[in-house]
Each structure stands twice: as structure tokens, then as C-alpha cells.
Amino acid sequence: MAGSASTPAASPARGRVAGARLLLAALWAGSLWALGYVAAPAAFAVLPGNLAGDVVSLILTRQAWLSIACAVLLLVLLRFSPDLLPAKRRFLGGLVLAMLACTLVIYVGLQPAMAHLRELAGPGGVRTSAYWTQFAVMHGVSQLFYLVESLLGAWLILKSR
């Protein structure tokens, strides 16, 4: 029964807002998957280590800004979603905020620290420097946050429908 206390009201806006949410969630998660599991490994497969690192770092920066934009837009859409019950709206908002937190940990915390270690290592590269262990640990933590964000993205898509 449309408009009852247990179901949100049906309207043309409902479909458009729901579609926009799903499209943004797919854009966000898809870009994470394409970068992290296709583009970055490909860059390291064909480019020298330092150059591949520079390219992937640049792409990750752009990915972070795309993630921030998607998060903001999704939070706005969630706020004005006539098709969602409050509990589902809060759940989806929590997923968006968790993904945004992963982005910020990587972009604001780990990426700058790893870039600094790469600079300290000099032209020989971080692998041959005294900073390798610290860099490798940070890289592993970054990959873990990226994996979590990727999985949360899949969950967001599935729950946004």
C-alpha cells in the first residue's frame, strides 16, 4: 500500500532518485575496481617500478577526489530519497561514510607518508633504501583499506537497489 507507514510513497521522483543513487554507487565502486585491480597492476607490469608508482599515485589522487565527490552526492541523494525508509537511509549513509573514511585514510594519511618515503629514498628507489620496510607496511595497510572500500562498494550497490 503506497504511502503507508511501512512503505515509502511511490512517485516518478522515486525512480529517478533511486536510479541516480545506484548509478553513483556503481560509478564509485566500478572506478575503485578498475583502478585497483586492473589499471594499477597493468602499470606495474609494463612500466619501471618508480614510474609505475608515480603513475598509480597520480591516478589514486584522482580516484580519491572522485570518491569524495561520489560520497557527497550520495549523501545528498540519501537525504532526499522519498523511496527509502529511515532505517535503510541510515544504513546506506553508514556504508557511504565508511567508504569515505577509507578514502580519507588512504589519501590524507597513507599516500602522503608513502610519497615522503619515496622522496627520502632518492633516485635508487624505495626498494633499495632503508625505508623499504616502513613503506611496505604502509603499502600493505593502504591495500587493506582499499580492499575494504571495494567490498563496501559492492555492498552499497547491492543494497542501493
List the helices and strands and how they pair.
Elements: H1 12-46, H2 49-79, H3 86-121, H4 132-160
Question: What would your notes on this structure say?
Answer:
Helix content is 81%, strand content 0%. It has helices at residues 12-46, 49-79, 86-121, 132-160. It has 161 residues and is mainly α. The protein starts with 11 loop residues before the first helix and ends with a helix.
What percentage of amino acids are in beta strands?
under 5%
For the secondary structure, the number of strands is: 0
For the record, give the distance between the C-alpha atoms at the N and C termini, rounded to a whole number: 19 Å
Ranges where pLDDT stays below 50 over 5 or more residues in a row are 1-7
Q: Which geometry do the CA atoms define? A: elongated
Please summarize what this structure is.
81% of the residues lie in helices and 0% in strands.
Can you give keywords for this protein?
about 160 residues; mainly alpha; 4 helices; elongated
